[in-house]
Amino acid sequence: MRRAVRYLRQKSEAYHTTIHILLGIICAYFTTSFFPDAPLGWLIFYGILGSLLPDLDHALFIFFYGRKSEYSQIVKYFLKNKKIRFMISFMKKNHKHNTGLYSHNILSVFMAAAAFWYFEVVRDRPSLTVFFLAWTFHYLFDLAEDLLFFKRVNPNWYFKFSKTPKRPLSVAPPDVPSKTRSTPE
Ligand SMILES: [Zn+2]
User: Of 20, 79, 109, 184, which is the most exposed, with the fewest CB atoms less than 10 Å away?
Assistant: First the structure.
């Protein structure tokens, strides 16, 4: 059992974004059962879009409302020094310790699910149906990942946002200067 959990954690960490994209495609196929005449290509396009857009909030956090946090400073250090690979591996390892994303909360999950229901049942709009279904599944996957890694959901889901990470961030080499590392908010 423990081995299985470790295996799932590794895969989840390595393929987080890929899994989001796959879920978007699955949502598109699922939506064809409500709208058999809708073109599958468009449904897949809107499914992937809805799967990825919620994470735009990572960029808002890094460059705007959470820009002074240690997490953001390190990401920007890698970006400025064109160490894109290190930046990606740093974000893969640490993004789930970032509990500061305002959009990732339980109300957003219900709003996305309600929008899915509205466009499916009330408005009969295939593109927006799959878009909000995928948006909902984005949060559901993030929640499942919290359970997988921490056996509980992160506090941001119940509106406890923090700009300091839950545990010390792991930084891939080349290490960032200490000046960058000591700027908690
Ligand atoms: Zn997310």
Answer: 184
